[in-house]
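Friendly challenge for the regulars: who can give me the structure tokens for this chain first? No prize, just bragging rights.
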Amino acid sequence: MFFYLAKLLWFFLQPSCLIAFLLLLGTVMVWTYWARWGRRIVALAAFLLLVVGLSPLGNWLVLPLEDRFPRTDLEEGPAPTGFIVLGGAEQRYIGEGRDAPTLNEAGDRIVEAGMLAHRFPDSLVAISGGDAGMLYPSGSEALGTATILAELGISQDRLVLEDQSRDTYENAKLTKAELEKRELLGPDDRWVLITSAAHMPRAMGCFRQAGFDVEPWPVDYRTRGPEDAWRPFDKVSEGLRRVDMATREWVGLLAYWMTGRTDALFPAPEQPIDSTEVPEPESGPQEDGEPLTDAA
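First reply, four minutes later:
Bragging rights claimed.
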């Protein structure tokens, strides 16, 4: 139920659709008794279209998300047991229609999964993603990603498929269950999560809530860093797309936190424990009444 409700509500709440609905409402009202209010609403919609589409607003929204989790140091500690790559990197319904792999803007997820699999030849690749389509059902995303990785030279016996999940929370829960079933979640196993940088906070929160300790490997960056904070867009469509994407993550963080799907409102990297810090002894008398320090 959560999956379908989230899809329906987001269609109406995403900024680009809200602006379009305002424009439609104002246009209709212009031809009614409320024509003055109709003109005001049309003017507001036009103003929002320009601000959202051309200003750096999209970058302001996405930068805190992309900068939240740095990449883990893969050279420190044991080699990863495996990499978990989340679905959402393909246009499956187009790929099936054309009988060709069709990556979308998040295609870096698959590309980097293949690169890391070659870099660590003994590591596994767990692929999580079912059919998340509503209007255009397209089959398992995990199967599509597995086919691409196999064509890139990754042996199929290294691939672990979870093909039932439809959202990030299900990614975490069902991937954990699949790896536990294969006895791949021991205390010494190390798993690295691959997903879009802006999506990483919500994904890490979901995996932590599921009791699955993973390390972040963000990909699919949309900004260069702080230097893009004041960079405007040269196409209204690009600015709208960026704001829609970032707003979806912020709304998703709030909705997931309120429904108990993440462990925090804005998940953050865990602070490393400094082993050099030695706790100071507690002051006060010992049990036998003698002072803690010897008298000179």
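The first strand starts at residue 82 and ends at 86. The longest helix spans residues 236-258. Your move, everyone else.
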